[in-house]
Design a protein that fits this description.
7 strands, 274 residues, alpha/beta, globular, 7 helices, 7-stranded parallel β-sheet, TIM Barrel
C-alpha cells in the first residue's frame, strides 16, 4: 500500500510540474498583455498610491468606498479591447496596497461587494468574460497592506498618524492565504498571480513556501510572478521587471540578476490631458 501511494504521489507531482512548465512556455509565447490598475483610489484621479502620497488616515480613505459606483464599467468591452489589440492576457488589481479588495471575500467587509453601493464583484465579471473570450486572467495581489490592523510591524510605507502600532503578523499571513484560496477556488482557471509589496518589509518572514505551494496545489498551471526586484525565489515562475528592461536599472530599484525563468517587463502607457 505504501508503494502504491508513493507511485500515485509521484505521478500527481510530475503531472503538476508538467502543467506548470506548459504554462511557462505559453507565457513566453504570449508576449503581450494588458495590466490594469483600478480601485477606489481611481475616484481621486491621483494614482493608486494616493493614500500614501496624500497621507490619508484609514477612516478618511474608507470614505471613498461609499462613493464607488462605476456605472460605465463593462467587462466585455475591456476584454474585447485587449483581444483586439493582440493581447493574450490581462492582469488586474484584485487588491492593491490600500487593502481594498475588488472581489467578494469572506475575510473582511472591506471589499467592493460589501463596502460600496455598486455591490458587484469586479473580478467575477472580468474572470467570466476572459473565459468567454479566451483571454487568460492574472490577478494582481498586494502583499503590502496600508489598512489591515495585523500588518505589523509596519514597513517603509503607511506610517501615518493614528494607525495602530500593534497586530499579529502570523494572523495577517493567514488572511492573505485565505484570500488567495478564494481567488484560486472561486473564479475558475486563472493565469496566475502578480505579487507586489514585499519590498516594503524585505526582512520579514513572508512564509513564501507555504503561500506558493498553496497556489500551485489549487491550480498547478497558475504562474507566480513577484515584483520584489530581486533574484527569483523558489516557487516563482516568471521574473518581472517594473518599468525597466531586464538587467537595467533606470528606476533605482531594478538591476536584479536575470534568471532562466520567462521574463516580463511591466511598463506604463499613459496619455495625459484633461
Amino acid at each position: 500500500m505504501l508503494r502504491i501511494f508513493a507511485v500515485l504521489l509521484l505521478c500527481t507531482t510530475t503531472f503538476a510540474q508538467s502543467e506548470n512548465l506548459q504554462s511557462r512556455t505559453w507565457f513566453e509565447q504570449a508576449r503581450f498583455g494588458m495590466f490594469i490598475h483600478w480601485g477606489i483610489y481611481s475616484l481621486l484621479g491621483d494614482g493608486e498610491w494616493v493614500m500614501q502620497t496624500q497621507h490619508f488616515t484609514g477612516p478618511q480613505y474608507e470614505q471613498l468606498a461609499a462613493q464607488f459606483y462605476p456605472v460605465k464599467f463593462d467587462a466585455a468591452q475591456w476584454v474585447s479591447l485587449a483581444k483586439q489589440a493582440g493581447m493574450h492576457y490581462i492582469v488586474v488589481t484584485s487588491r492593491h496596497h490600500d487593502g481594498f479588495s475588488m472581489f467578494a471575500t469572506k475575510q473582511n467587509t472591506y471589499n467592493v461587494v460589501d463596502a460600496t453601493p455598486y455591490g458587484q464583484d469586479i473580478i467575477r465579471q472580468l474572470a467570466d468574460e476572459c473565459h468567454r473570450q479566451g483571454i487568460k486572467l492574472f490577478v494582481y495581489y498586494s502583499q503590502l497592506d496600508w489598512h489591515h490592523p495585523d500588518y505589523y510591524p509596519l514597513g517603509g510605507t503607511g506610517q501615518w498618524e493614528g494607525r495602530p502600532r500593534n497586530g499579529q503578523w502570523p494572523r495577517y499571513l493567514d488572511f492573505v492565504n485565505a484570500q488567495l484560496t478564494e481567488l484560486f477556488t472561486n473564479y475558475g482557471e486563472l493565469g496566475g498571480v502578480w505579487f507586489d509589496g514585499m519590498w516594503d518589509k524585505p526582512e520579514a518572514d513572508w512564509q513564501l513556501p507555504k503561500t506558493y505551494s498553496l497556489i500551485h496545489r489549487l491550480q498547478p498551471g497558475a504562474l507566480i510572478v513577484s515584483n520584489h526586484h530581486k533574484t527569483p525565489n523558489p516557487g516563482e515562475d516568471v521574473q518581472t521587471f517594473e518599468k525597466d528592461l531586464p538587467g537595467e536599472n533606470t528606476t533605482g530599484w531594478g538591476g536584479a540578476t536575470i534568471s532562466q525563468l520567462p521574463l516580463e517587463t511591466a511598463d506604463t502607457m499613459y496619455r495625459g490631458g484633461s
